[in-house]
């Protein structure tokens, strides 16, 4: 193989892989047909059968699975009984796309009092993979009397990673809204009810 056989990339990203065909004297073999085949993971290759150039090389683009995990690709010479070259790729989550409440959503409590269950928010990429590090920020969209926050922690060692905060309801009864945000995802709104 010309390119690295161990790859780390973002889920659904395209990775260029290159192999070189040579004879027993390490001379390049021209016009050999290289078969690229995705073996594990739900990735795909742009060109399955590629003819080698005069320098013996052949390349294709390998698109990794949309889900995080391990992907493997094999490259072999068509018509030859040889051990294939195996590429292994680890696909990682992409950028933040969705904010998901793991706990603490839709509670109700007394005004100007802490809600009994902290709000826990995780972050997913566009394919639903949980990000392994989160730094969610919480704000109140109201002009006054809205909820406030205390005891905010980031638990990146947990699976899934999450940001946890205690919500203190505002002075107004009814719906209290909380906006959770982490760029570049759009903010997510979580609602709570306050009573006298």
What report would you give on this structure?
The protein has 196 residues and is an all-beta fold. Helix content is 0%, strand content 50%. It has strands at residues 6-10, 14-20, 33-40, 44-45, 49-51, 57-63, 69-77, 85-92, 98-103, 108-110, 119-124, 137-139, 148-155, 162-168, 174-181, 188-195. The strands form four sheets. The chain has a five-stranded mixed β-sheet, with no helix packed on it. Strand 13 and strand 14 form a beta hairpin. The model has no long low-confidence stretch (mean pLDDT 94).
Topology overview:
Layout: E1 6-10, E2 14-20, E3 33-40, E4 44-45, E5 49-51, E6 57-63, E7 69-77, E8 85-92, E9 98-103, E10 108-110, E11 119-124, E12 137-139, E13 148-155, E14 162-168, E15 174-181, E16 188-195
Parallel strand pairs: 1-8, 10-16
Antiparallel strand pairs: 2-6, 3-5, 3-7, 4-6, 7-8, 9-11, 11-14, 12-15, 13-14, 15-16
Beta fraction: over 45%
Q: Helix/strand/pairing class, anyone?
A: mainly beta
Mean pLDDT: 94
Uncertain runs are none
SS field, number of helical segments: 0
Fraction in helix: under 10%
Task: For this entry, give a set of tags.
mainly beta, four-stranded antiparallel β-sheet, 16 strands
The gist of it:
This protein has 196 residues and is mainly β.
